[in-house]
Amino acid sequence: MKTKLGLLYGGKSAEHQVSLQTALAVIKALDLKKFEVYPIYITTAGQWIKGPQLQSPVQSVQQLEFSKGNELSPMSLAPALFQADQQNDAELDVIFPLLHGPNGEDGTVQGMLELLNLPYVGNGVLASAAGMDKVVMKNIFAQAGLAQVKYVAYTRSEWEKAKEEAYAQVESELGYPCFVKPANLGSSVGISKCQNREQLETAFVEAFQFDRKIIIEEGVVAREIELGVLGNDEPKCSVAGEIVPKKDFYDYKAKYEDEDTALIIPADVSDAEYRQLAEMAIKAFKALDCSGLVRADFFLTKDGKALINEVNTMPGFTPVSMFPLLWKHSGVEYPQLIERLVELAKERHAEKQRIKYTF
């Protein structure tokens, strides 16, 4: 019996194009002997369009961008959106949200799928929302006792009322260099590295274009090390990988356009350093109540101290992205990784069905 798999991609987010690349890669890797694949495209305007069942792998992003079709609103919780087809009213078995950024990776879509009681791949509402908001995430990490860089945060209204005070606080508590980031965005969109007051002021304006809340983090001299985490209640870590950007830092262009950033897998870390990183990755995974997958990102200083930077609850997922590459070097090939995530989604959904809702 084939698994009826709904692929949810696109989205009303600055990471729309990243999501399309992820969807294309996943579709090419899926074994159509094992899966019936149903694409569900979300336009940049937020319109949901369901395409027909895929009979063969698509070859380009353009084939995934539907301009018309079975146009449905998720707000109506229309059952037809998650049915296999009009002739077969059976629901899709699993939804795979291949969405990056707000309106997809932040718990909004996950909440809708929870209301529909549908199995879905990846993190739930709480982990997705907390993992998307860097300020909330770092506050939770602090409560869990995880070492991290110093940081401060502001809402747009706080900054507009007292800009000079905000800049002065950054300079006194963090100093230069520092990094200014939108709180709720990924793929390094809207991030700036600042070396002085002029750059800091420009960075605030840039970051507030993408979110109403921003975070400013202390700059540290350290290696950038990442681990993949896979599982539900008993998560496991992949080998460690290292990012060596040829630019000043690993920005959007370095991630997706230049293709000149070195990804070193496995990273040259000692057994003790790896154990420290893996322990922190699992602790962060459990602190946010994650499920399915995360990529845990760290700074590793020259003296071997690990500082957690963040976790990404829906990391880049093309075959050349760090998360799949980490698992490939850990013995799990890309198609098997997708199948494992679908299995974890079913496992978690079955566990939730044990909850009693009446008293």
Task: Jot down its keywords.
359 residues, alpha+beta, Rossmann fold, D-amino Acid Aminotransferase, Chain A, domain 1, 5-stranded antiparallel beta sheet, globular
Please specify the SSE layout and strand pairing.
Layout: E1 3-10, H1 16-29, E2 35-42, E3 48-50, E4 70-72, E5 94-98, H2 108-115, H3 125-132, H4 134-143, E6 151-155, H5 156-161, H6 163-173, E7 178-182, E8 192-194, H7 197-207, E9 213-218, E10 223-231, E11 236-244, H8 252-258, E12 262-264, H9 271-287, E13 292-300, E14 306-312, H10 322-328, H11 334-352
Parallel strand pairs: 1-2, 1-5
Antiparallel strand pairs: 2-3, 3-4, 6-9, 7-8, 7-9, 10-11, 10-13, 11-12, 13-14
Description:
By secondary structure, the protein is of the alpha+beta class. The chain has 3 domains: 3-120, Rossmann fold, CATH 3.40.50; 150-218, Dna Ligase, domain 1 (2-Layer Sandwich); 221-352, ATP-grasp fold, B domain (D-amino Acid Aminotransferase, Chain A, domain 1, 2-Layer Sandwich). The protein is built from 11 helices and 14 strands. The chain has helices at 16-29, 108-115, 125-132, 134-143, 156-161, 163-173, 197-207, 252-258, 271-287, 322-328, 334-352; strands at residues 3-10, 35-42, 48-50, 70-72, 94-98, 151-155, 178-182, 192-194, 213-218, 223-231, 236-244, 262-264, 292-300, 306-312. The strands form 3 sheets. A 5-stranded mixed sheet has the order 4-3-2-1-5, with helices on both faces. A 5-stranded antiparallel sheet has the order 12-11-10-13-14. Strands 6-9-7-8 form a 4-stranded antiparallel sheet. β10 and β11 (236-244) form a beta hairpin.
